[in-house]
Amino acid sequence: MADAGGEDLLSLLPDDVLGEILLRLGSAGAAAQTSVLSHNWHRIWSELPDLKFHLVNLANVRSVLAAYAAMTLRYLDITTRRAAPELVEVVLFLSAPLLIGEIFIQNVKLCDAEEGEEDRRSDAFELPCFNRATKIHLNLPFLGLKLPTSGVFLKLISLYLHNMWIDGWCDLGEVVSSARCPLLQDLQIYNIHGLTNLTIHSKSLLDIELHSLEGLQKITIVAPMLLVLDLQCCFVGRAVIDISAPSLKSLSWYVDYDPTLTKLGEMAHVTSLCTSLVVYGPPGSPNNSESVKLFQHFRAISSLELYLTQPDIIDNCQYLMKEITMLPDTKTLSLWLSPDGHVFGPYVFYLLCLSTGIRNLKLELSRNSEEQKTCSSGCICNQQEDMETDDILLNSLTEVEITGLSGTEHEFIFVERLLRWAAMLKTITLSFHHAITVTGEVCEKLLGLSHPMTCMKINYYVNGDEVMYSPAG
Questions:
Q1: H helix intervals, 194-238
Q2: What SUPFAM superfamilies does the database record attribute to this sequence (predicted)?
Q3: H-type helices in 212-333, by residue range?
């Protein structure tokens, strides 16, 4: 930029200052375009430590990396569309010797016309060995991944692989184990096909998340430092599971638990357990007996989080919660459920009675649709409500938080009973769903249920903003 006398003052700035200016432009393309402003700027963009490309053709990224002048690359972020595997491979091999930080490559879907393409498998690309990268995040739907058969990821701390299929003979477990990833701490494997056996031996891993690994039949994890393990929808049918993680603190278990095929090892330090239960199911459907066996593995859990599931239509279904005969001793019970107009009080109170030391209850009511539903008087959920006649004692309960309320009559009944049976309750926070219009009359009705020792807070939405109800006067 020149002053009135024609002198280019901006180009007089040191190169490192100019580099900082170009970094704030947000994309490598914009930074490269600045070279037309001044001859002195021509090489600055090619020495930037961070490169970001948004919805670009990978051929352009290849050209940029081929002309890259710096010896090291700190950050590479690429969002593309319909990535060709051969171009992905070229970009990876060009960046591998430069990268000393993070690489993120994502293939996005832009329109509904591309629906159904998830069934199309493209050719595979090869992942080189990044011996200096600290984080690798690849989200490349429909593409195949060839893992490197040799080499060590010396500095790698985080590895995220999403939405691909494994091609070739090299085992993923071998690649992420300590021999080839000595510093790996975080591992996320989401929706990866082609794995049948996953064996991980790691001295460094702290967090493992495995979701939707279709076809996996056997998993072995030996990780003495592991703190967090999250397994969700990883198997089709029964699978052999062997976990050795003596330091584990948080376990999310959304897979089958068969004691004859599952070995968890000693987990004395687990303080958080997340799993699911089935409230209603058709005759012959999977029940909760395996969940009971999982609970028996843990005598006490500080925080227990349960997802309570049921079919959208529960006509001709059976009530399955009576199969739950025990819960681990817990201080905080979090329940996630989608009532969709059905009565939920009986099974929530049933669970509260199974662990008498519960101090905090968090109840999240979600919806499958924006439309508010009601069930028939002859629904099986109303039969459970009619069976609930005896008072119960919830003397340990001191704090309750309920979100997603719709203002239905059975919700009022639930709150009224909760306040009556939890004599030591100090605080109850009630938050309505954002689509519900809440009147002062409704709030006053709820406040009228509370007793003097309990502080009730009511939150609802007005014009998209959450507000807390304050009585007039």
A1: none
A2: F-box domain
A3: 289-295
Q: Which residues pair with 80 in a beta bridge?
A: 107
Q: Residue 280: in which H helix or E strand, if any?
A: strand 280-281
Taking the whole predicted model, whether its pTM rises above 0.90 is answered as no
d(CA 236, CA 404): 33
> 217-229 pLDDT, tens per residue?
999 999 999 999 9
**Residues 343, 280: contact at Cβ < 8 Å?**
no
Give the other-Cβ count within 10 Å of 338's Cβ. Answer: 19
Please name the helix (run of DSSP H) or strand (run of DSSP E) that holds residue 19, with its range, or none.
helix 15-23
DSSP state letters, 101-118: EEEEEEEE--SGGGTTGG
Average pLDDT, the chain: 85
Is the model's pLDDT at 371 over the cut of 70? no
Alpha carbons 387 and 319: distance in angstroms, whole number: 13
Return the bridge partners of 201, or none.
222
Query: For residues 163 and 165, what is the distance between their CA atoms, to the nearest angstrom?
Result: 7
Beta strands in 127-226 (DSSP E): 135-139, 144-146, 158-167, 186-193, 197-201, 207-211, 216-222
Burial of 228 (0-12, 13-18, 19+ CB in 10 A): middle
* Secondary structure letter of residue 463 according to DSSP: T
Mean of pLDDT values over 396-423: 94
- Is the pLDDT confidence value at 102 over 90? yes
Q: Which residue has the tokens 């006398």?
A: 5
pLDDT classification of 72: cutoffs 50, 70, 90? confident
Q: Are 45 and 38 in contact (CB under 8 A)?
A: no
Number of residues that make up the chain: 473
